[in-house]
Design goal:
Strand content: 5-15%
Largest sheet: 4 strands, mixed
Number of strands: 6
Structural class: alpha/beta
Strand order of the largest sheet: 4-3-6-5
Radius of gyration: 16 Å
CATH superfamily: Aromatic amino acid hydroxylase
CATH architecture: Orthogonal Bundle
CATH class: Mainly Alpha
Order of helices and strands: HEHEHHHEEHHEHEHH
Shape: globular
Helix content: 40-55%
Amino acid sequence: MPQLDEVTARLRQLTGWEYWPAPGLVELREFYRSLGDRVFHSTQYVRHPSEPLYTPEPDVIHEVIGHGNMLASPRFAGLKQAAGEAAQRVQTPEALQAIADVFWFTLEFGVVWEGSELKAYGAGILSSYGEIEEFRGMEIRPLDFAEMATIEYDITKYQPVLYAAASMDELEDRVGTFFREADDDTPARLARGRAGAQAAR
């Protein structure tokens, strides 16, 4: 099991990121704002052997196998930093939650089309053997930030709805733009966009 300082030493060389040990879940605002400074708060415990396929609480397997691989990639690390910078800008809890919800469906449970094959890249899927086996059978929808910010989800179960980018370029462009443009008016804009889309059906 790698130590966090060992992982940090490698990440600093690749993307400038570092892990800070955390005793458990970190308060939402602190966690996301730290991403803007290329700091990832990580737990160090390992999931209980009675639940090897998935854990709703982030353990070191999730933090290193899931997020560590992404933080070693300049493209994914850039998206995480953009999410953190968005969290640093916003003041309202509603705006922060919208950022967290889009992060959940893109960087935690994101999938992307590679030609005709659906690939998983989100940390929550990559660190869950059970979810890796199941994700292609879930309901797959195109990226929809307004829906991501309003749909209910249960962190204790496999995600039944996943949002797929058409390509890595689309993911980087659209998700990156969302985080770069996020502000305190974002929840209201998303709600207006959702209402408009529903009225057009």
